[in-house]
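Annex B. Sample input.
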Amino acid sequence: MQTIIIIAVIALIVLWIISIYNNMVRLRNNRENAFSNIDVQLKQRYDLVPQLVSTVKGYATHEKELLERITEARSACLSANSINDKISANNMLSNALNGLKVSVEAYPDLKANQNFMQLQSELSDIENKLAAARRFFNSSTKELNNAVQTFPGNLLAGMFGFHKEPMFEVAQEERATIEKAPTIQF
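Annex B, continued. Sample output.
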């Protein structure tokens, strides 16, 4: 009888460990899937950027340095392999695109150009979709991090190679800009 109880307890412990492990695998896969959604939006963004840049080039040929930064940032995004590298490269591209928006304000004819307006609208749409995908990614990351850092998962996470993963956050260079209240002029 004692042997049966011991076997039952061991079986319950093994099932409990399997359950925790499977939950962590599920959460890790959800996080990777969430980043895949970001990748889809980033791909659309990368494909749209050259069209936007060529339209702007027609109006702003002397903005060569800005356009080169955007092209370099786009290349860095395409060559990034890990999730963390992609996050970093994406932040670099976001900063470069913000410079483009400021530059465009100096060219009223460009802002009125139909092709530019359509591209700008598409880029804005993609940016909104990216924001939603990033929120989903961060939510998935939070769920995984909670499972890895809370009891009882924290007892097993290290043994199975699970660890706290980084969120998709605003780049340090951009933080000062976004924390400042916008200036509204009429």
